Amino acid sequence: MDCSPVPSSPCCWSRAARAMPRRPAAWKPRRPAAAPASRSRPGQGSIAAPALRQGGPDASLAAAQQARPEMQFAYFNLMSMNHQGETPAEVLANTVRQVRLAEELGFDATWFAEHHFSNASICASPLLMAMHCAAVTSRILLGPAVVVLPLHHPLRVAQEVAMLDQISGGRVLLGFGPGHQPHEFRSLQVPLESRYARLLEGWDIVEQALTTGRVHHLGEHYRIEDTPVAARTLSGRMPPMYVATATPAVLARGVRAGATPMISQGYRTGTQALPMRQAMLDAWRGVGGAEPLPLGIQRYLFVTEDAAEARQAAEGLLALARNTVALRAALPARDGVHLRAVPFQGEPTVEWLLEHGLIGAPGKIAEQLAGDMRLLRPTHYSLYMGFTGLAGAAVERSLTRFGREVLPLLRRAAEAEALAA
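^ LLM class flavin-dependent oxidoreductase, sequence as received from the core. Prediction below:
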């Protein structure tokens, strides 16, 4: 997935908004003001909507929930090696600890990226990473953001998704994307120009496998004679889907599935992101998407009141933007696997990021995100904190403070917006 914070390259996903698959009895999705599912969830003891504090759900809350998808908060894992001293083993271990902590803090979901051949991400298999984390969690939803489907045989992907769904008890979100880094396609010997056609064909094949248990597909890029598939999802349906592109043909495919687009706000302010929302709404309408527009947003944040940590976080965010620019090249400049920074025209200063970015004390973060929620009206946030280059313990402190001091406020804000809708 292109998690670019660079204004010229927004990342767009789509998520299936159809009803969640049936889950085993022990698994309970979060509902506003519901009791915790299977363990205490720090920081969520006071997030009930006003109507519920006064004696239980009323018709207005039920109507609001029907009219608008429930707000979700997800923790995103890019899994970068942010400096020469970091090792893949350290990055992976930090990721596992942070996913377990995100579950304890009440996040709804966690995402794992897929990238190849650079320090921008060491996760070549998000499904493999999700499988490992499924074994050490019990409630949080897990998914790839995304599987770069053109780089894989879809029958293999279908079987691995089914394994993840079975072993996790149905806690799967599934993201597909066409890919966007030319060097990955060159090294894996897949024609870049075929990526959208491969994505659409691959999606059809995965859906056949997971929903019918058989695949018969005679297409341009894949020719599969009648083939049985042993494992399917527990529900017999596709997991909730996310798609990392706003390309019309793929967005239309998502709309037919009942999908939600997702944009990457990057380091933009809410006001700066409004044109992105409008552009997505126009594209959504253009392919027949139903309204109100369900919208996911990816953001980058770091909670700290330490001035030195805040500055390093801002420098890390700028480095992330520069790396994203570098990866757009056919042959990105690298020293080994480490990308060389590529300053770009119009890039923000560290001082601007410190003032306007989501870096700082919990109160600042909560106020800015709540304001963005009112302005942009998202239904899903994917939140990334691992861009700083700071040690894992510092990232976990940020995650903990967000979960305990910011997330409850955002839950209340989301519930208030749902009631007002």
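Residues 70-420 form a domain with the TIM Barrel fold (CATH 3.20.20.30).
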